[in-house]
Amino acid sequence: MSEETLRWTIGAVRMTALVEAETSGIPPQFFFPDITPDDIRGVGWLGDDPGVADADNATMAMRVQAFVLEVGGRTVLVDPCVGNGKRRNLPFWNDLSTPWLERFHAAGFTEDGIDLVVHTHLHEDHLGWDTRLVDGEWVPTFPGARHLYVAAELDWAAAPEQQAREGSYLDSIEPVLRAGLADIVAPDADLGGGLRLRSTPGHTPGHVSLEVTTGAERFV
Fold first, then answer.
1. Closest CA to 131 of 181, 93, 89, 91
2. Residues 104, 189: Cα–Cα separation, whole Å
3. Which of 164, 144, 162, 143 is nearest to 152 (CA)?
4. Residue 53's pLDDT band (boundaries 50, 70, 90)?
5. CA nearest 121: which of 148, 93, 87?
6. Which of 27, 41, 44, 177 has its CA 20 to 30 A from that of 153?
7. Residue 13 to residues 1, 16, 76, 99: CA-CA distances in angstroms?
8. pLDDT above 80 (res 51)
9. What mean pLDDT, rounded, does the chain reach?
10. Terminal Cα-to-Cα distance of the chain (whole angstroms)
11. How far apart are CA 142 and CA 165, in angstroms?
């Protein structure tokens, strides 16, 4: 495994993190306007890993990554990053050209081998690899997978003001809907095999978390 690909075995689940990009040295105020440097220095575990935060300078790293869960005979992709060639308003996510798909292959996965795509929410850095550009058209990357959406989140992403803000609906969501690969699920849906959604709104209106139960262990 490379430093861009990390893997853990938790009970009966194998989880692989596939990094698309990582940026260090970010002031935490970018995310939390009221935070102070002392707040960062006071969280011991942040300083224990220099890849997460720089306690001396009170800065943090931001990583864009997807997770692949191999569980109960299914291969589940969670939050597939920004994607390549997408026109985005944020300059650091605009028109990317990263080797994320090559890392996906190097980790032993194939596009046809993904059974389920789970989105915790529909910000542009959590759904971009759902599609890729083929002969000038955005088409689903994982043609054998069901792609899960919560209705409140999908409605929010489709709203004109949100489309103007991010632009990901037309190139990363609509092609999946048009291909008939989408399932609208409840925010507390039981996905079977120890996987369940949990409603965690706030960051976005229909935000969910994925709870995984494997034997005596459980993680989110």
1. 181
2. 27
3. 162
4. low
5. 148
6. 27
7. 18, 10, 11, 26
8. no
9. 92
10. 23
11. 26
